[in-house]
Amino acid sequence: MTQTLDPTTARPIGISEAGAQRALSVIGSSGKENAGVRLFIKSGGCSGYQYGMAIDDRELEGDTVLFDRGVKLIVDRMSLPLVQGAEIDYIENMMGGGFTVNNPNATSACGCGHSFRTDGAEAQAGEGSSGCGSH
């Protein structure tokens, strides 16, 4: 069973205006009805954890689902504590554009911006490991 949170009372994650515009565009062209952005964490990367994002039309047991700026955001139970209070953003620069996660729980981050570490949190053993070059 999924739980749906009212973003006015609880905002475990959010999305910026630029992130929302880009996400809605990607979701619209995905062909998936009722899809949203799934933010998840996996162990690996040069700092311990890696962010992952996908367009997903499934809601799994234990997922937290909320809407921000018209975008459905989905986070699984294991990832939620690591991204509590984070904001998904979309940035454009000379190297191109891409989604990024502004995470208040990250105490350090890799230069590539795809991996991070938290105070006292260890990555789960056996879930894979990769360096910055393999995001």
Q: Would you give an account of this structure?
A:
- The chain is mainly β and 135 residues long.
- It has one domain: Hypothetical Protein Aq_1857, Chain: A (Sandwich).
- Helix content is 12%, strand content 38%.
- It has helices spanning 17-28, 80-83, and strands at 3-4, 13-15, 36-43, 49-56, 64-68, 71-75, 86-93, 96-102, 108-109, 115-117.
- The chain has a seven-stranded mixed beta sheet.
- Strand 5 (64-68) and strand 6 form a beta hairpin.
This entry's quaternary arrangement is single chain
Shape: globular
Sequence of secondary-structure elements: EEHEEEEHEEEE
CATH architecture: Sandwich
The CATH superfamily appears as HesB-like domain
Key phrases:
globular, mainly beta, 10 strands, 2 helices, 7-stranded mixed β-sheet, single chain, 135 residues, Hypothetical Protein Aq_1857, Chain: A, 12% helix
Give a brief outline of the structure.
The protein is mainly beta. It has one domain: Hypothetical Protein Aq_1857, Chain: A.
Task: Outline the fold blueprint.
Blueprint: E1 3-4, E2 13-15, H1 17-28, E3 36-43, E4 49-56, E5 64-68, E6 71-75, H2 80-83, E7 86-93, E8 96-102, E9 108-109, E10 115-117
